[in-house]
Give the backbone structure.
Amino acid sequence: MEILPQHVSIIMDGNGRWARARGKERVFGHLEGVESVRACLEEAATLGIKYLSLYAFSEENWNRPQAEVSTLMELMMKSMKNEFSNMMKNNIRFVVLGNRSRLSEGLNAAIDKMMEDTAANNRTTIIVFLSYSGKWDIMQAMKKAAAELSPEAFQALGPEDFDNYLVTAGIPDPDLLIRTSGELRISNYLLWQSAYTEFYFTDVLWPDFRKEQFRQAIEEYGRRDRRYGKVK
Ligand code: FPP
């Protein structure tokens, strides 16, 4: 493939609708969605994509029915345990970013362990955004910067300096953002970081988004002309 994105991010949408269309509970859609996560991660690693990030749970998602929230958290826990040996075998680094203070102690401990154990892996990094929202990230960065810096240094902050206070510090901005299920919005995701990201929208529901669909998105990215506001 000619032009490969370094960082591909995905808003995984449509699990509920996928399940409902089959007369099943929404949770079946999430379960199938985990298979799509595995497929896309495998394909990203095969292609040599360095970062794959996934919007797994937004700050707003806490307002879903309690049963669905618990199911999603349990699924997260289970998937981490199931995938651990696979990640080690395939040299995948695992990172979770978001408002960790809202996650349970047990889940936080499991996430810390998984992040520590995979920290030295360097083929592909999978970033799971959990309890994340773009506005929350910008707010926490602003507060951290204000607490750390003198008023003069705070006033002198530039965009590149501010990057270092976001939870994504050190991670390149996404080159390509995919959203499945036909919704055409950013839903409070990587607001700051997606300033020059290429967007790719597809009607395919997340449980149906597998290797072939992932590859199509990457190929489409290769045809884009990125100008960053300049004239070429
Ligand atoms: C969107 O579909 C999907 C989610 C909010 C959850 C995504 C979570 C997973 C695929 C599983 C866990 C993730 C990992 C990384 C193992 P929706 O429920 O909004 O569907 P709808 O729009 O059709 O209602």
About this structure: Helices lie at 15-20, 26-47, 66-89, 105-117, 134-148, 151-155, 159-163, 211-222. The chain has eight helices and six strands. The pocket of farnesyl diphosphate is lined by residues 12-17, 30, 33-34, 37, 54, 56, 61, 72, 75-76, 79, 128, 181, 206 (CB under 6 Å).
